[in-house]
Specification:
heterodimer; A: 29 helices; 68% helix; disordered N terminus; B: 62 residues
Chain lengths: 740, 62
């Protein structure tokens, strides 16, 4: 049956039939020439504009036209020429269909699911922080990074996982690279996840501290979700759209309601310190991980997904309507000198790790392997879902960057610099940003805070508040009628909603990983339905990220300033592991001449992350090197001094402890990745010598499924689908929309 | 014009039902009809689906 099919290694024909491999029509040529021209003009304007103000739309369209060209040409090359996706080969969804995890899913629906799973708060905050370097470095990295690294990683991992019945990243590394590499990767994934959860939670804490409006609306998402859960379980089972409609309406009401309660006694009760918020988040994370998913997680996920997509569409429309003007420099002085207050270090390598999600995010490799590949209908669809999904996330990152560079830059630095630098009041913050060279006054900072009805905007670090200010400005410009305070809290709400969804889902995933791993030695613990096991594993996971969160929140030097680099590097290190696996597999499959497709991004990513890791560990500049920082405070302490921003010996102890811990974690992550990469290099050397090696790819089975390979069905595919539907008769096909 | 709008609305409805998994119930009914099974109640069906989700990790990225 499989005899005539091409395998990955062999075979002739590559591009799908009828998809325009023959001479392209004049219309096609004209369209793509126009797209290329738009892109060239936009990039040209960005390149030559210096000193004058330009519209943010140049950024937007430079990115969009680059994405279009990359999708049309580069992703097609990778899918059909490098990977040789084959429409005649059945996917695991078709072969192993069981209606549960293996399930043939319409490509557009799966695109939505996959996008909802990969996109969260990451692409929203990284670009905001990176804006301290100016708008150009971030933009270039987001666009070039996604095209040649991030989207490539997602696509290739998804394809290889699909060819292996949806194996997870860890499993593939164990089987294709080796046991030691596999174990190192497993530990790395778990540790990195803890850091990511802690940093995400830190962003929420910073956005909600001392903000009764924010706390009120976020807290209400929990009863709203539980109501939806009960609605779907008991009242009207399965009516997800109804329940979500009600949920979104209640959510908007909760945002408006926050404005009513903030000056009341309830508002005072909800004015929480960061420490209380940490406790609340930890309790929430634990409860969410132990409760049945239908009660809290699933309905919350519906809410956050719909909010996510709604806001992205709203933002895209608003940008075009409002046409905001860029306030930031193209390349700021901080990019050259590396002395920025938001995060320390020079443009290289720190822009490339501050912006992880949106350009290259290793975490996606966990989602692109496992769940999504088990649902792909046709091999070629990984191009849309893997590459296209990541382009979409990159677009979100560009939008966030725009929001950060269109606000007053003095305000931007007053908000994003740690309290130790700004002094915490409007007056001291104004003096601080004037020292940086901005003419922002205390009055204008106070006025900006009043406009969004927050006590203060000074040192609201983490990126979320600054993004919310930018979005509030863009939305109120686009829709008129002010409403800055509403839009600000709307933006805070949806960011917190994403993050909390990531935190509770992440805690569960961490719990599963822990139970699975410990289950190898203690069988009972691996049983997911065993209550005590659930409770212990959840408590361990929550305890781990909760402690890192607490450390970050109380860090005198500012948790975001200290931990965000660790988060970015960790995420990029995971990408190095994933890209190493992809490169190994390309070479094992005998495609050495295409190994550059993942090899070049791998080398780049290793250079970036290892340089950053080296600087964070060995730099003798205390602002950058964790151990140099430790030394500086330890020396001062030995001399009986107190170094600002620490205020007493207790805080000195804290700085010393935190720097040591961060430095150790940083070294540990880098070492784990080096172990995996070294093992990968050995396998690569063997595979190159042998001209390819056997892999765990499943043998080809002929596909009976008639489905388009790309986003749009080709005329040939349309005919085939019409034939299929005639055969099935009047039965309601899955792809009814296709026929229209 | 009206026809185009109606088609677009149909498409959006189809997408949302597929996306949220509501369509699974319709698929199930069609499947039962095709094979002559008696379907379980919707409550029972959705409960089984929700309980199956209990064991799947549902990854969400940052």
């Amino acid at each position: 049956m499989a005899g005539t099919l091409t395998t990955t290694d062999g075979g002739g024909g590559s591009y799908p039939a009828g998809s325009g491999r023959s001479r392209p029509s004049i219309r096609t040529v004209a369209i793509w020439t126009a797209v290329a021209l738009v892109g060239a003009v936009c990039w040209g304007v960005l390149a030559i504009a210096r000193g004058e103000t330009i519209s943010a739309l140049w950024l937007l369209f430079a990115a969009l036209s680059s994405y279009a060209i990359a999708y049309r040409f580069y992703s097609r090359f990778i899918t059909y020429k490098v990977l040789r996706a084959d429409a005649r080969r059945a996917t695991p969804a078709e072969r192993l269909q069981n209606g549960v995890d293996f399930d043939v899913t319409d490509r557009r629906v799966l695109f939505g699911h996959h996008f909802a799973a990969i996109a969260g708060a990451g692409p929203l905050v990284g670009p905001v922080l990176a804006a301290q370097m100016g708008y150009l470095p971030g933009t270039i990295w987001i666009v070039v990074g996604v095209i040649f690294a991030g989207a490539v990683q997602d696509l290739v991992v998804m394809f290889f996982s699909m060819r292996r019945n949806g194996k997870s990243l860890g499993q593939m590394i164990r089987e294709e690279i080796g046991l030691v590499g596999g174990i190192a990767a497993l530990i790395a994934v778990f540790a990195i996840m803890i850091i990511i959860l802690a940093v995400l939670a830190l962003i929420v804490v910073n956005a909600l501290a001392e903000s009764p409006w924010g706390v009120f609306s976020i807290a209400l998402t929990i009863p709203i979700a539980i109501f939806m859960g009960i609605y779907l379980r008991v009242l009207r089972p399965g009516r997800v759209l109804e329940a979500t409609g009600i949920g979104v309406a209640l959510l908007l009401l909760a945002i408006v309601g926050g404005g009513w309660i903030q000056d009341t006694a309830l508002g005072d009760t909800l004015t929480l310190s960061k420490e209380w918020l940490v406790l609340a988040l930890v309790v929430y994370g634990f409860v969410a991980s132990v409760l049945p998913v239908w009660l809290l997680l699933t309905p919350r996920d519906y809410l956050s997904t719909f909010m996510k997509i709604g806001v992205i569409v709203l933002l895209a429309v608003s940008l075009v309507v409002a046409r905001p003007v860029i306030q930031a420099d193209a390349v700021s002085d901080f990019a050259r000198e590396g002395t920025g207050p938001v995060f320390a270090g020079s443009l290289f390598p720190f822009v490339f790790i501050t912006i992880a999600c949106g350009a290259l995010s290793g975490f996606h490799a966990l989602i692109s392997s496992g769940t999504t590949p088990k649902m792909v209908a046709k091999e070629g669809q990984v191009r849309l879902i893997g590459y296209g999904g990541m382009l979409m996330e990159s677009f979100v990152a560009i939008s966030a960057l725009i929001a950060a560079v269109v606000i007053d830059q003095g305000l931007y630095f007053a908000m994003n610099s740690p309290a130790g630098a700004t002094g915490g009041t409007a007056e001291s913050a104004a003096a601080f940003v004037q020292g940086l060279g901005f003419d922002t006054t205390a009055q204008s900072i106070a006025a900006a805070s009043a406009a969004v009805q927050e006590e203060t905007l000074v040192s609201r670090t983490g990126g979320a508040p600054a993004l919310a200010v930018g979005l509030a400005q863009i939305f109120s410009q686009a829709f008129g009628g002010g409403g800055q305070a509403f839009w600000y809290h709307f933006a805070i709400m949806f960011e917190a909603l994403f993050i909390l969804t990531a935190v509770d889902a992440g805690t569960r995933v961490g719990r599963f990983m822990l139970q699975d791993t410990v289950g190898n030695v203690w069988k009972k613990f691996g049983d997911l339905s065993w209550r005590p096991g659930n409770i212990i594993a959840s408590a361990v996971v929550v305890g781990l990220w909760g402690s890192v969160l607490y450390i970050g929140v109380t860090d005198p030097l500012g948790g975001v300033n200290q931990l965000f680099p660790l988060f970015g590097i960790a995420n990029q290190l995971l990408a190095a592991i994933a890209l190493a696996l992809c490169t190994v597999l390309l070479i094992k499959h005998g495609k050495l001449r295409y190994a550059w497709v993942t090899g070049v991004p791998l080398v780049w990513d290793l250079v970036v992350t290892m340089t950053a890791s080296y600087q964070k560990v060995f730099s003798d500049n205390p602002a950058i090197g964790y151990f140099a920082q430790r030394q500086r405070y330890a020396d001062a302490q030995a001399a009986g001094e107190v170094l600002a921003p620490a205020q007493d010996q207790g805080q000195m102890d804290q700085v010393i402890f935190n720097s040591t811990l961060n430095g150790i974690l940083q070294s540990f992550f880098a070492l784990l990745v080096l172990v995996v990469v070294a093992h990968a290099a050995v396998v690569i050397a063997r595979a190159v010598k042998a001209n390819g090696l056997p892999t765990t790819e499943e043998p080809a089975v002929e596909s009976k499924l008639v489905e388009p390979a790309g986003l749009f069905a080709t005329p040939e595919e349309k005919r085939a689908m019409a034939d299929r539907d005639r055969l099935v008769g009047a039965g309601a096909g899955r792809s009814e929309a296709e026929e229209k | 014009m009206t026809a185009a709008l109606a088609r677009a609305w149909q498409g959006v409805r189809w997408y949302l039902k597929e996306f949220t998994g509501e369509a699974r119930w319709d698929d199930y009914l069609a499947h039962c009809a095709e094979h002559g099974h008696t379907p379980v109640s919707r409550r029972e069906f959705e409960r089984r689906r929700a309980d199956a989700a209990e064991a799947s990790p549902m990854s969400r990225c940052c």
